[in-house]
């Protein structure tokens, strides 16, 4: 377990940053899902706004390109009535550390209340929450190949809404586990929520070292990997993986690990198919499956906004409580000691 | 000038000496050992409960300075080394500018001589600018006082060039130091294992080390060069050295203090102070490294001291500089291993002093009458806190910052003079 378990919570056990599900307990994850459920309802109303973050400033800091995640966070913040600033910041290869520190401290001095951070380095959100701006709520929108907790939790929301209890479910996660920040957080979240049959499917080149230590089984063969499962989660395959010798070709990959209608028949008849998107049709998933009746892909997008609203409102509330409890001056430029 | 150290436990494994007694230094040399009641000196030191040993020789350290004074100066880091009991330091060639020219070597040595804390035994670059293409002027550099040649952490990927390096070194009987890690497989940030997987950091597999060791052993065997491996990290690496020694090869190896004491799990929580290269590995590797010291497979313990300024460690993990400032915590860490029953002080002194002196092609310092006095006096029961006011290195990358530590060097004597005193 990483230190982030404690770092993410206030002294009273409320969420103040959301960096990874790892280290949080089942009750907390269920609260996130329950809160998100209530926001799903709001999304269906004519007026979709609630005033939970009125007067608060949310800054979306995207050090790495992303359209979908960025726009759902922006929409979520706006539906919570926050003032939203979205910044696309290219990282400087030579002085990443300094520029990150300086950027954040400047934004903090502008009375920002929440940073939504996407960064190409694993641990970036953790670094910001622990060492740079601990009194600003940090939502991790993806750090390197470490974590993407809101994506993992919206997947949990999708599973819970469509399959019910986690204890009895078998879940297969297929594809590029090695480079996937989503897969790691899905595994953490599934374990915490009680799922005991988690199968990771892919070739050895895309499987991280010692991954079974996370309480999963690994499968080289797709057919046996998804045999009888309730949920199939397909991961996006970056085309550059072929250039860096992880895989020989997209064609061979699709033949071995692509999800086709025929292959999906190995899973339970009522199995659902998920994908964090954007999908590569014909590389990891056949169009007939992606657009088929078992596909949850578009539901996931809708739930993404609700889930992000839930996490943002909970973390903001926790962070405000912590600020009041500690009477921290938000403009104080004192930093917590380094670990 | 004369010094009498009274009531210390004198340990010198090279002389099978382990005895509580007195030692007298006069005019740079050891004048007397034994009961010195009645002998007077300019400086009297009551050393009851303390350990007196031959001084330490560091086989791998980075002193910064030159173009990196924000990380440390030769004066600050050699003083920190003296505070860890060292009198002689083998410096890594990856200085800025690179230690591939006599002028750089002389400048570094002169700075150290002016500071007066430690003598330098530089390891020069094996290839020009460490680029792995052209040979450095090895013979001239040897004449300038370099005790060996290394390409630091930079691989020489071209086998023809590497063969020429070994052949040229063999011509003049020069020693080659190797930091055994395949550069491509070593491009990650920490040991490839469960912790790296959970944290989403790029892993460095053990084969990055074993592949490089096997490769260099082949070149050493082929050319007859006497080789030394710096900073082993893995059980499999130790096994390869053990096998090479059993075959009668002229090969030696050391381990960094960090690898003897910490494992990859210390990185959890993205603690950049534990971002080191080569990486900290698993507990089974750490145990194998300790066994290597005990059974003599590993000859020496080095500091692998690498000071950094605070900004170098203040970033997301992958963007932080690797390396740990180790001088301030070296003796407390050895004491911790002794307290845990993993090591004895006699073994530690063998590894920090006797064996490293032999490897550095230096006459062994010993507690012998008439020898030049190069000594380290350690108080194993001294309790102190490592913090910005007690540390001597300029490096802020102190893994044990603000922790209570036990044991400290009380006195270091270089050529009969006190180079450090608490």
Short summary:
Chain A is an alpha/beta fold and 339 residues long. Helix content of chain A is 41%, strand content 13%. Chain A folds into two domains: 4-147 and 301-326, Aspartate/ornithine carbamoyltransferase (Rossmann fold, 3-Layer(aba) Sandwich); 149-298, Aspartate/ornithine carbamoyltransferase (Rossmann fold), CATH 3.40.50.
Helix/strand layout:
The complex is a heterodimer of chains A (339) and B (422).
Chain A: H1 4-7, H2 26-43, E1 57-62, H3 68-79, E2 83-88, H4 96-109, E3 114-119, H5 124-132, E4 137-143, H6 149-163, E5 170-174, H7 181-192, E6 197-201, E7 217-219, H8 222-225, E8 231-234, H9 240-243, H10 250-257, H11 261-264, E9 272-274, H12 287-290, H13 297-326
Chain B: E1 2-12, E2 17-26, E3 29-34, E4 43-46, E5 51-54, E6 56-61, H1 74-83, E7 86-91, H2 102-115, E8 119-120, E9 123-125, H3 138-143, E10 148-150, H4 159-171, E11 176-179, E12 190-191, H5 194-199, E13 203-204, H6 207-223, E14 227-230, H7 235-246, E15 251-256, H8 257-261, H9 283-295, E16 300-302, H10 310-313, H11 330-339, H12 345-359, E17 375-385, E18 404-414, E19 417-421
Parallel strand pairs in B: 1-4, 1-5, 6-7, 7-8, 9-10, 10-11, 11-14, 12-13, 14-15, 15-16
Antiparallel strand pairs in B: 1-2, 2-3, 5-17, 17-18, 18-19
Helix pairs in contact in B: 1-2, 6-7, 7-9
Radius of gyration of chain A: 20 Å
What structural class should be given to the helix and strand makeup of chain B? Answer: alpha/beta
By CATH, the superfamily of the largest domain in chain A comes out as: Aspartate/ornithine carbamoyltransferase
Which CATH class of the largest domain in chain B is shown? Alpha Beta
Strand content of chain A: 5-15%
According to CATH, the fold-level topology of the largest domain in chain A is Rossmann fold
- Calculate the mean pLDDT score of chain A and round it: 89
CATH topology of the largest domain in chain B: TIM Barrel
Tell me, what's the shape of chain A? globular
Q: Regarding quaternary structure, how should these chains be classified?
A: heterodimer
The percentage helix of chain B is 25-40%
Low-confidence stretches of chain A: 1-5, 330-339
Number of domains of chain B: 2
Order of the strands making up the biggest sheet of chain A? 7-6-5-8-9
Most residues in contact, chain pair and counts: A-B, 35 and 29 residues
How many DSSP-defined strands of chain B?
Answer: 19
Number of domains of chain A: 2
